[in-house]
Amino acid sequence: MFIIVRAVENLGITTALGRGLLELSGNNPIRSILLTASGTALGANLINNVPMALVMISVLRNTSSAVSHAMVYAVILGADLGPNLTTVGSLATMLWLLIMRRKGLEISTLEYFKLGITVVPVMIVIGSLLIWLKL
After folding, report:
1. Nearest of 48, 41, 55, 30 to residue 124 by alpha carbon
2. pTM of the shown model
3. What is the number of H-type helices and E-type strands within the chain?
4. Residues with Cβ within 8 Å of residue 65, at least 6 apart in sequence
5. Residue 89 phi, psi (nearest 5)
6. d(Cα 122, Cα 98) in Å, to the nearest integer?
7. N or C: lower Cβ tally within 10 Å for the chain?
């Protein structure tokens, strides 16, 4: 995992992501926090939460912004809450669902997603606002 993240860094992808993040946020602190948390949350569902957190740490290392420290908290928020959107967002969720199925409790991917799509975006927004208020 660390080797892949290093390869992504060496290709300049994390630097480009950092520049893009800063351009999209337009030096607006709340937008920076929301974009960072949301992007990390979505990425966690694509490549899993731990690799996404590592990628985002590298992205933030390549950015200099007045709200960089708040963006670190936004990465933590997105990497922790984001995987609750789908069943493949984190290894812990996949293992938990496997254990529950072995115990006879079937939770479908669609049921999990329906709850996740209802709760996760709201929590990302609330968490981002709280981070912004602490600036």
Report:
1. 41
2. 0.87
3. 7, 0
4. 22, 25, 27, 32, 71
5. -70, -30
6. 27
7. N
